[in-house]
Design goal:
- With 74 residues, the protein is mainly alpha-helical.
- It has one domain.
- It is elongated.
Length: 74
């Protein structure tokens, strides 16, 4: 698991981008998971499928904006 939410969302974005690139080549999600994701990220297929449904870029942007506003207050 990621250390904090920023790292969690960055990891999800990395997996989503890898998946998108490989889907353009013509691989399906099961092959992408088995050949590329499983060994590198050490996650199960269910977690992989859940990661593909997370709006990580939007959430990371929101998190960074919140942090930026909090630092301006102090």
């Amino acid at each position: 698991m990621a250390y904090n939410k920023k790292n969690y969302y960055k990891r999800i974005i990395e997996i989503q981008e890898l998946t998108k690139e490989l889907q353009e080549i013509g691989l399906n999600n099961t092959k992408i998971y088995n050949k590329h994701v499983k060994a590198r990220y050490h996650i199960c297929k269910r977690t992989f499928d859940e990661y593909l449904g997370v709006p990580a870029k939007r959430e990371l942007k929101r998190l960074l904006e919140t942090e930026k506003q909090q630092t301006k207050l102090f």
